[in-house]
Amino acid sequence: MTISMRNFALQWTDPAGVRQSSAVGYDRPSAEGREQELIDAQCSDVRIIETKPGVLPEPAA
């Protein structure tokens, strides 16, 4: 049986309107928890993105 590790990162717009991206990778449950924290902090356009290990997204334009 093969175990497949999937990595996720987040992108969002902070309350000041600046696009941001996570500086760490997450597993799915942790990414979903961080997503809710960002939404609670009034961030918008919060997205969970699947990434490859060691690769993080740039903030979207």
Short description:
With 61 residues, this protein is an alpha+beta fold.
Oligomer: single chain
Strand content: 25-35%
How many β-strand stretches? 3
Shape: flat
Residues in helix, %? 10-25%
Q: What is the C-alpha radius of gyration, as a whole number of Å?
A: 12 Å
* Main sheet attributes: strand count, strand direction, barrel closure: 3 strands, antiparallel
List segments where confidence is low: pLDDT < 50 over at least 5 consecutive residues.
none
**Which class do the helix and strand fractions yield?**
alpha+beta
**Distinct helical segment count:** 1
Amino-to-carboxy terminus distance:
40 Å
Q: Topology as H/E string? A: EEHE
Q: Trace the largest sheet across and list its strands.
A: 2-1-3
Reconstruct the topology from this structure:
Blueprint: E1 7-13, E2 19-21, H1 28-40, E3 44-51
Antiparallel strand pairs: 1-2, 1-3
Characteristic terms for this protein:
61 residues, alpha+beta, three-stranded antiparallel β-sheet, 1 helix, 3 strands, flat
Describe this structure in words.
Helix content is 21%, strand content 30%. It starts with 6 loop residues before the first strand and ends in a 10-residue tail after the last strand. The chain has 61 residues and is α+β, with helices and mostly antiparallel strands. The protein has a three-stranded antiparallel β-sheet, covered by helices on one side. It is flat. The protein has a domain of 42 residues.
